[in-house]
């Protein structure tokens, strides 16, 4: 049994969701289509958005499940999708500074224990660099950010 798993297919627990097979059951917190919803919300709070990065740690986040819907939404919204894998404070800062360097950049923060643990740094860097962001977890909103969208309230 699994509970609150990001992506049971990407994690290798089941071969597919519609017929998981074996003797396992559970609940996934995030639907892969949220990648597009996060980008749509970002474009609503940041009119004229031209570039959007999705930030995650590839060692701890199931980005493969969210990227297809994120990229599809980007094409539809005429926004350049950017993959922003981060492993350290320095990489977080570098990614956010790059987004803020040119106007009309935005940020989507994936559900990821690593980015959650670096929440204060991400919030401060986004504010310093005037980068609008959408977060997958409401902890970011409680800490002063504008918008989150996801199952954890």
Characterization of the model:
The chain has 153 residues and is α/β, with parallel strands linked by helices. The protein has two domains: 1-30, no CATH class; 31-142, Response regulator (Rossmann fold, 3-Layer(aba) Sandwich). The protein has six helices and six strands, in the order E-E-H-E-H-E-H-E-H-H-E-H. It has helices at residues 34-45, 63-77, 89-101, 113-117, 119-128, 139-142, and strands at residues 2-5, 26-28, 51-56, 80-85, 105-109, 133-135. The protein has a four-stranded parallel beta sheet, with helices on both faces. It has a two-stranded parallel sheet with strand order 1-2. Helix 2 (63-77) links the parallel strand 3 (51-56) and strand 4. Helix 1 crosses helix 2 (63-77) and helix 3 runs parallel beside helix 5 (119-128). The protein is globular and about 50 Å long. The two termini are 23 Å apart. The mean pLDDT is 80.
Describe the SSE topology:
Blueprint: E1 2-5, E2 26-28, H1 34-45, E3 51-56, H2 63-77, E4 80-85, H3 89-101, E5 105-109, H4 113-117, H5 119-128, E6 133-135, H6 139-142
Helix pairs in contact: 1-2, 3-5
Q: What's the CATH class of the largest domain, please? A: Alpha Beta
CATH topology-level name of the largest domain: Rossmann fold
Backbone structural class? alpha/beta
Principal-axes geometry comes out as globular
**Subunit organisation of the chains:** single chain
Tally of separate domains: 2
């Amino acid at each position: 049994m699994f509970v609150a798993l990001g992506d049971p297919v990407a994690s290798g627990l089941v071969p597919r969701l519609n017929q998981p097979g074996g003797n396992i059951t559970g609940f996934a917190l995030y639907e892969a289509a949220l990648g597009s919803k996060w980008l749509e919300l970002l474009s609503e709070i940041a009119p004229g958005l031209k570039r959007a990065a999705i930030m995650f740690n590839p060692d701890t986040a199931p980005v493969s499940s969210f990227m297809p819907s994120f990229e599809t939404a980007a094409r539809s919204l005429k926004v350049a999708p950017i993959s922003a894998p981060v492993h350290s404070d320095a990489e977080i800062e570098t990614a956010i500074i790059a987004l803020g360097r040119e106007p009309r950049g935005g940020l989507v923060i994936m559900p990821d224990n690593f980015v959650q643990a670096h929440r204060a740094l991400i919030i401060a860097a986004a504010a310093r660099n005037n980068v609008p962001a959408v977060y997958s977890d409401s902890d970011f909103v409680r800490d002063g950010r504008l918008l989150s969208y996801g199952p954890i309230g």
